[in-house]
Design brief:
Largest sheet: 5 strands, parallel
Bound molecules: adenosine-5'-diphosphate, guanosine-5'-monophosphate
Structural class: alpha/beta
Strand order of the largest sheet: 2-7-1-8-9
Number of strands: 9
Protein name: Guanylate kinase
Domain Guanylate kinase-like: 6-188
Radius of gyration: 16 Å
InterPro entries: GK/Ca_channel_bsu, Guanylate_kin-like_dom, Guanylate_kinase, Guanylate_kinase_CS, P-loop_NTPase
Keywords: ATP-binding, Kinase, Nucleotide-binding, Transferase
Family: Belongs to the guanylate kinase family.
Oligomer: single chain
Helix content: 25-40%
Length: 202
C-alpha cells in the first residue's frame, strides 16, 4: 500500500467554502510536490481561468464523447454543468512523482469509492451556512440564480458529509490561517486531528 503522502488526496465541500483558496496557497508554497487533477467541465471559464490550468473547458458534445470513450474515472452533473476527472489527468500527475490532489463534488466522491484509487478523503466545511452564503456571493463569480442553485446543492453535500465514515478528515475553514495549516499538514502526509462537522442548520 502507498504511504499516505503518495495516495491521491480528495478535497470536497460545498461551492464557496474555500477549496480553491487552500489549493492555490499549497501550490504556491510547494510548486514541485503536488499536482492538481485538472478536470473537464462544460461550464464557462470565469475571468482569469485558463484552459488546461483550472479546467479543460469543453463543449457538452465533447464531454459526452469522452464519457462514451470511457475517459473518466468519475463524472457528475453539478449546477447545470458536467464535470469529470479523466484517467489521463491523474496518470500524468502520478508520472511526475507528485501527489495528486482532486477537487470534486459529492457524487464524484461516491463514484471514486467504487474504484481502486484509494485516496485520502478530506471534507472542507464552512463554519456556518451564513458564512458560506457570504463567501459565495462575495466571490462575485455567480449570478443570483447560480448562487441559489449552489446553496441548495450545498445543503445536500453537507447532509451527505454527515453520514458516518464518509470522509477521513474534516477541516472547518473558519480562520483561513488555521485551516491552511491543517490542510498543508494533511497534504504533506502528516496525521492531523479531524475537526467536528458543525451543525450547519442556520
Ligand atoms: P471553492 O473553491 O470552495 O468554491 P473559493 O476558494 O473560491 O471556494 O472561496 C470562495 C470565496 O471565499 C473566495 O472569495 C475566498 O477568497 C473566500 N474565502 C476562502 N476562505 C475564507 C475564509 N476562511 N474566510 C473568509 N473568506 C474566505
Ligand atoms: P466550480 O464550478 O465552482 O469550479 O465547481 C463546482 C463543483 O464541481 C465543486 O464542488 C467542485 O469540487 C466540483 N468539481 C470540479 N471538478 C470536478 C470533477 O472532475 N468531478 C466532479 N464530480 N466534481 C468536480
Amino acid at each position: 500500500m502507498l504511504p499516505d503522502f503518495l495516495r491521491p488526496l480528495i478535497l470536497s465541500g460545498p461551492s464557496g467554502v474555500g477549496k480553491s483558496t487552500l489549493l492555490q496557497r499549497l501550490f504556491a508554497e510547494y510548486p514541485d510536490k503536488f499536482g492538481f487533477s485538472v478536470s473537464h467541465t462544460t461550464r464557462n471559464p470565469r475571468p482569469g481561468e485558463v484552459d488546461g490550468k483550472q479546467y479543460h473547458f469543453v463543449t457538452v458534445d465533447k464531454f459526452q464523447e469522452l464519457i462514451r470513450q470511457g475517459a473518466f474515472i468519475e463524472h457528475a452533473q453539478f449546477s447545470g454543468n458536467f464535470y469529470g476527472t479523466s484517467f489521463q489527468t491523474v496518470r500524468e500527475v502520478e508520472k511526475e512523482g507528485r501527489r495528486c490532489i482532486l477537487d470534486i463534488e459529492a457524487q464524484g466522491v461516491q463514484q471514486i469509492k467504487a474504484t481502486s484509487l484509494n485516496p485520502v478523503y478530506c471534507f472542507i466545511s464552512p463554519p456556518t451556512m451564513a458564512s458560506l452564503r457570504e463567501r459565495l456571493k462575495g466571490r462575485g463569480t455567480e449570478t443570483e440564480a447560480s448562487v441559489a442553485k449552489r446553496l441548495a446543492t450545498a445543503v445536500r453535500e453537507i447532509e451527505y458529509a454527515k453520514e458516518p465514515n464518509m470522509h477521513d478528515y474534516v477541516i472547518v475553514n473558519d480562520d483561513l490561517e488555521r485551516a491552511y495549516m491543517l490542510f498543508k499538514q494533511l497534504a504533506l502526509g502528516e496525521k492531523i486531528l479531524t475537526d467536528t462537522l458543525p451543525r450547519l442548520d442556520d
